[in-house]
Amino acid sequence: MKVLAFDTSSKAMSVALLEDCQLLAEHTLNVKKNHSISLMPVIDFMMKQVGWKPTDLERIVVAQGPGSYTGLRVAVATAKTLAYTLAIDLVGVSSLHALCPERSGLLVPIIDARRNNVYAGFYDNGRATQPDCHINFSDLLAMLKGHEKVVFVGEVEAFRNQIEEVLPQAQIQPTLPSAALIGKLGQKLKPVVAHAFVPEYLKKVEAEENWLKTNLETNADYIKRV
Question: Rounded to an integer, what is the distance from CA 47 to the centroid of its chain?
């Protein structure tokens, strides 16, 4: 199976091409760039390097979220367009799972969600032990106090001091998203219907949250006559 996998859910962008489980090419850019401008040129360059045409692709695997709202919209829109246009399979994988190296033990991947909040996952030996969530980092640390061995991965540097203070036994391992990893994971999943595929935000955008604070009526109309 020829697979294109990519992740633009955070500051870093990762793109990979795989044939079955063999990684043919991977490109990771860990600088703050406009992924909507960079993604397709990188895909085009890598396809040419391995000698593939778009019609050679059999499956698209994309990091579905959580993460940056803009980054997720770029990834999902690109994945849906390619899958629909080429009439090939589309699969979504957790952006947090993309941050987990292949190892045993409890891994807690995190993505910075600002204001001391994070998107967090809980993975053991490559499997999720509970759903990904949006949570205050202090609350996350409190949840993990009973675990003797915890490895924090992903965007961890901003939270290092808090981790060392509350969980001094925990390991801290900064990692970047791996499109190669989600490409391998995505080959084991059932494809989804492209037009119904949506990002997993896990949290409403700030503008929507502010609107809801001042519009609490559950039966209120969203459209008002002007």
Answer: 22
- Helix H, strand E, coil C: the string for the chain is CEEEEEECCCCCEEEEEEECCEEEEEEEECCCCCHHHHHHHHHHHHHHHHCCCHHHCCEEEEEEECCCHHHHHHHHHHHHHHHHHHCCEEEEEECCHHHCCCCCCEEEEEEECCCCEEEEEEEECCEEEEEEEEEEHHHHHHHCCCCCCEEEEECCHHHHHHHHHHCCCCEEEECCCCHHHHHHHHCCCCCCCHHHCCCCCCCCCHHHHHHHHCCCCCCCCCCCCC
Calpha distance 63→96 (Å, rounded):
8
Structure tokens at 128: 């999720």
Residue type, 94: S
**Computed from CA positions of residues 143, 147, 152, 158, in that sequence, does the dihedral angle turn out positive or negative?**
positive
- What pTM value is reported for the model? 0.87
- CB-count exposure of residue 85 (10 Å: 0-12, 13-18, 19+): exposed
Please report, in angstroms and rounded to a whole number, the separation of the first and last CA atoms in the chain.
54
Which two tokens mark 186? 């995505």
State the residue for tokens 């294109």. Answer: 4
Q: What is the mean pLDDT of residues 127-135?
A: 95
Q: What is the per-residue pLDDT across 57-73, written as a single tens digit (0 to 9) for each? A: 999 999 999 999 999 99
